[in-house]
Design a protein that fits this description.
By secondary structure, this protein is mostly helical. It contains seven helices and two strands, in the order ααββααααα. It has helices at residues 2-26, 30-34, 46-67, 69-78, 81-98, 105-129, 132-149; strands spanning 40-41, 44-45. The relative contact order is 0.12.
Length: 150
């Protein structure tokens, strides 16, 4: 049980890291407002350092997800279907808006950005409400039921 709890915490940390990096990539224009892009630190500019830092975060998140792959699979199997359908519909709407299919270019940009924002809010809300201990209890009960029936 302790191993499962550790995997749950690692999964949650990996999910938060992935969400952080995705949102950071989405806000790629933000550093331009505050940081001189020509400034060098130890011989490299801001973009080089940012890319290296995000790569390290990606590798850490991937390692945590690989370590907790059974837990990750259990979470994916128990995630409500409505959440998958909502994200898929929003991703399709985002694609349609990005390519201005059925929308003017300016309205397509608005649709794209709103769709992305709602996807991020859904992910953040799901992570925020995700209780590792509660999920562990449900998972433990399912495992006990499987052992009793076999």
């Amino acid at each position: 049980m302790q191993s499962h709890l550790k995997q749950g915490v690692y999964f949650w940390i990996a999910a938060v890291l992935v969400l952080f990096t995705v949102i950071r990539r989405e806000l790629n224009h933000l550093p331009d407002l505050f940081i001189d892009m020509q400034a060098l630190w130890l011989g490299h500019n801001y973009d080089w350092w940012e890319d290296r830092l995000l790569l390290v975060i990606y590798i850490i998140a991937l390692g945590l997800l690989i370590y907790a792959w059974r837990y990750c699979w259990a979470v994916l199997k128990t995630t409500p279907l409505w959440l998958y359908l909502s994200v898929a519909a929003l991703a399709l709407l985002q694609y349609i808006g990005e390519n201005a299919i059925g929308f003017s270019h300016s309205l397509g940009i608005v649709v794209e950005e709103l769709s992305e924002a709602v996807i991020y809010l859904l992910a953040l809300g799901y992570l925020w409400s995700f209780k590792v201990a509660g999920f562990e209890e449900r998972l433990e009960r399912r495992l006990e039921l499987k052992e009793v029936t076999h």
